[in-house]
Structures are given as structure tokens and as C-alpha cells.
């Protein structure tokens, strides 16, 4: 994670939050897929719900078919 996100405490907090958010959404990803999440400088000051909304927005762009099914529709806000 880049130092542009913030100091070490901020970077670790963002890393923990993103790791937790991705863990909740793992079943949406294909088994053979590779997901790379890159934190931007704005993520250092973002709240947990904002990080979740941003992650959900990005996932909806790369997994449109998964999110349109009834099982996937309730998983993302």
C-alpha cells in the first residue's frame, strides 16, 4: 500500500477494513479469479460504509452477471 494513503497507522487501518469487506464478498468471485484491490489516497479518510460502497460499485462493474441473479442481488447494496 502506498504511503500516499497516509501514515502507517492509517494504511494498516485501511488494509484491515478492505480485507474484511472483501472477505464478506468472496462468494461472489469466481474460483479461478484474481482480485487486486488498490487503496487510493482518498481511502485513508473514508469511513467504513464509504469504503464498502466504493468496493461494491467496483465489483458491480466487473461482475455484472453475478450481481443480476437473485442470489447475488442481496449481497451488494
UniProtKB/TrEMBL annotation:
A Pfam family: Ribonuclease_P
One GO molecular-function entry: ribonuclease P activity
Enzyme class: hydrolase
Gene3D superfamilies noted in UniProt: 3.30.230.10
EC number(s) on file: 3.1.26.5
Record's GO cellular component terms: ribonuclease P complex
Coiled coil: none
Domain of life: Bacteria
UniProt keyword DNA damage, yes or no: no
PROSITE patterns: RIBONUCLEASE_P
Database matches in InterPro entries: Ribosomal_Su5_D2-typ_SF, Ribsml_uS5_D2-typ_fold_subgr, RNase_P, RNase_P_CS
Record's keyword terms, sorted: Endonuclease, Hydrolase, Nuclease, RNA-binding, tRNA processing
Free-text function comment from the UniProt entry: RNaseP catalyzes the removal of the 5'-leader sequence from pre-tRNA to produce the mature 5'-terminus. It can also cleave other RNA substrates such as 4.5S RNA. The protein component plays an auxiliary but essential role in vivo by binding to the 5'-leader sequence and broadening the substrate specificity of the ribozyme.
PANTHER family: RIBONUCLEASE P PROTEIN COMPONENT
Name of protein: Ribonuclease P protein component
Organism expressing this protein natively: Nocardioides daedukensis
Amino acid at each position: 500500500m502506498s504511503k500516499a494513503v497516509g501514515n502507517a497507522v492509517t494504511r494498516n487501518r485501511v488494509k484491515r477494513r478492505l480485507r474484511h469487506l472483501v472477505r464478506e464478498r468472496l462468494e461472489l468471485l469466481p474460483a479461478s479469479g484474481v482480485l487486486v484491490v488498490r487503496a487510493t489516497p482518498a481511502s485513508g479518510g473514508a469511513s467504513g460504509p464509504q469504503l464498502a460502497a466504493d468496493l461494491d460499485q467496483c465489483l458491480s462493474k466487473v461482475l455484472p452477471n453475478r450481481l443480476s441473479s437473485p442470489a447475488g442481488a442481496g449481497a451488494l447494496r
